[in-house]
Design goal:
about 120 residues, mainly beta, seven-stranded mixed sheet, four-stranded antiparallel sheet, about 0% helix
C-alpha cells in the first residue's frame, strides 16, 4: 500500500537550515508528482512546494528563493531543503501524493524555528 514517511524536522534558529525527506513506498515514485504542505497551530494546511515527475518545481511565494524541492527516484525519496528559516516557517510539514483521486499523506515532521 502507499506509504509516505517524513523525517528531518527539528528545532533550528532563525536563519538556519533543515532538509526534510519524504520516503515513498507502495508505488513507483518516478511516475508521480509529490507535494510538500505545512500546517501551523490554529491555521489551515497550506501548500509549500511540489515537484512533477519531470522534475518541474513550484513554490509558494512565502518560501520561494529559500526552499528547494528535489527528488531521487532511485531512493524513492523527495527532499525539501529549507534555508534562511524564519519563525513563521514553524509548522508540521507533510508530503503528499494524489493518485487516482485519492490524497495520501505522511504522518508529518515538526519544524520549529526559534531562538
Amino acid at each position: 500500500q502507499v506509504q509516505l514517511v517524513e523525517s528531518g524536522g527539528g528545532l533550528v534558529q532563525p536563519g538556519g537550515s533543515l532538509r526534510l525527506s519524504c520516503v515513498a513506498s507502495g508505488f513507483t515514485l518516478a511516475y508521480w508528482s509529490i507535494g510538500w504542505f505545512r500546517q501551523a497551530p490554529g491555521k489551515e494546511r497550506e501548500a509549500v512546494s511540489c515537484i512533477s515527475k519531470s522534475d518541474g518545481a513550484a513554490y509558494a511565494d512565502t518560501v520561494k528563493a529559500r526552499f528547494t524541492i528535489s527528488r531521487d527516484n532511485a531512493k524513492n525519496t523527495v527532499y525539501l531543503q529549507m534555508n534562511s528559516l524564519k519563525p513563521e516557517d514553524t509548522a508540521t510539514y507533510y508530503c503528499s501524493l494524489r493518485q487516482r483521486g485519492i490524497d495520501y499523506w505522511g504522518q508529518g515532521t515538526q519544524v520549529t524555528v526559534s531562538s
